[in-house]
Amino acid sequence: MTRIVMLAATALVLMVAAVFFPFLELSAGGMVRRSSLLDAVLAFSSGMMLPLTFATAALIIVLPTLRLAGIVYALAPMALGWHPARHAVPVFRLTQALRPWAMAEIFIVGVSVALVKVAGLAKLSFGPAFWTFAALVLVTVLSDNYMCRLTVWKTLEERRRP
Amino acid sequence: MSGPVPQQIPPALTARAAGLVACESCGRVHRDGIAQCQRCGATLHSRRPGSLQKVWAWLFAGIVVYIPANIYPMLLTTSFGRTTENTIIGGVIELIDYGSFGVALIVFVASVLIPVGKFIAIGYLALVVRPGARIGRGSGLRGRQHLYEVVEFIGRWSMIDVFVVAILAALVQLDFAATISPGIAAVSFSLSVAFTMLAAQSFDPRLIWDAEEGTAP
Q: From A46, A120, B39, B142, which residue has the greatest number of CB atoms within 10 Å?
């Protein structure tokens, strides 16, 4: 349980870095363009596409962050041997429900496809945020693999405040 | 090595036959008639009410928005004053022209094969678990469960193409040389993915096993 909390906390820190540092760098004909994860999200922000902005923001930034924060909130007190936090039960149920909608790993595959598409057009290089985001995906997958849903529920019930 | 296989395996005892309800969220079992799980607070249903209706509704919504997703352009590339429009299939063909067959395959699988396969798979599951369905009765139950799990797992990967468009549109803004902007198909495609994910989630996998007992839900 400690391991899951540690990994989720790590992923949270990585997420902050991934959002604000430049993600990819494109140079063509002497022009250089850096874009961060936020730019990718805001790509749809014109006119009819606005709802899609919220959707992509939710899928690749907000929901993964919410899920990781939820895992830390629900499990950290138990990893330290305390009673679970006040609303640990509904929070953990929410993290379970969010799981299919957090699509960070799919975004990474999307990035590699995009790279191939522009390869002929311009020179591309990765920014620091790309590597943090890749690490984030890895850490999230690890923490999900260590987590056993049924064990967590059992522990939550056993440690409940009398 | 293994002992003799028992000739007659007794039918498994289901929660419902035992008068119990299992919580879908945390796995705890309760006596029948309790509305909320005492451990995790989720609503308890022996079988989700109106599951198939929701599945059909989301599935049709998904199919309807998948049509414009294929007709309208996904990407608008403006290069030296010329604008080219790319649909989903057009993007795949372009990738093949570049010679990157692997990536073309990924995009094709993610945005054509998976959505269409999902429509068919969900429709098939919803058809065969109907009470009184004639096709495929009592056979291949395990296969159906696997099919359901695959559909639920794989659905989200269709979003790849939408993300590709988002990245390209953010990145390729080189004024005159090349500009990429997203097309309207990106919206309907992501809606289609979301709707079919909801269809898969509203499907109650326990209905698959009801067919074995021949009981109506």
A: B39
| ipTM for this model | 0.72
B169 reaches A (C-beta below 8 A): yes
Q: Is B156 on the interface with A (CB under 8 A)?
A: yes
| Predicted structure pTM score | 0.76
What is the SS3 assignment for B17-39?
Answer: CCCEEECCCCCCEEECCCCECCC
CB B37 within 8 A of CB A160: no
Q: Are B141 and B12 in contact (CB under 8 A)?
A: no
Q: How close A12 gets to chain B, by Cα (Å)?
A: 21
CATH number of the domain within which A54 lies:
1.20.140
Chain B CB contacts of A59 under 8 Å are 159
Give residue-wise pLDDT tens across range A85-106: 677 777 777 777 777 777 777 8
- How far apart CA B186 and CA B70 sit, in angstroms, is 10
Structural domain range at position A9: 2-158
* Assigned CATH class of B49-213: mainly alpha
